[in-house]
Amino acid sequence: MSPTALILLFLIIANLPWLTERVFLVFPISSIKSVFVRLIELVVFYFASLLIAIGVEIQFSGEIYPQSWEFFVTTFCLFLVLAIPGVIYRYQWLPMTAKLK
Predict the structure, then answer these.
(1) Which whole-number Å values give the CA distances from 68 to 62, 63, 65, 75, 85, in the listed order?
(2) How far apart are CA 9 and CA 52, in angstroms?
(3) Is the dihedral of CA 89, 50, 78, 7 positive or negative?
(4) Under 8 Å between Cβ of 82 and 10
(5) pLDDT value for 31
(6) Rounded to 5 degrees, what are φ and ψ at 17?
């Protein structure tokens, strides 16, 4: 898997909590999903994306390079940046279109 494809996959994964009202894309809820639930989903999806990246790293080099805490803070911040389109869609685009109707 190329690095570009991996980043595009992470872009899709980072935006999943903001695009649906189901928890983890599976469990329907009776009310509107809160921001707290969306942030918990985002953290879980971050760890899932780390597992995907580890799998790609093992496939590419055969071993996992040890990382320190700075790596995880940086990658989590980048994951949050990738989630910005979903946040804008949920909290700016949808209310704006509902107001125009």
Answers:
(1) 20, 16, 10, 12, 29
(2) 10
(3) negative
(4) yes
(5) 85
(6) -60, -25
Determine the 3-state secondary structure of 79 from DSSP. helix
> For 50-65, what is each residue's pLDDT tens digit?
999 999 999 999 899 9
Tokens of 26: 């599976």
Q: pLDDT grade, residue 101 (50/70/90)?
A: confident
Tell me the pLDDT tens digit for each residue of 27-45. 888 888 899 999 999 999 9
Provide the H-helix boundaries in the chain: 3-19, 35-61, 69-82, 84-88, 94-100
Residue with tokens 């190329």: 2
Rg value, the chain, Cα: 16
- What residues does each domain of the chain span? 3-100
Name the phi and psi angles at 27, rounded to 5.
-90, 115
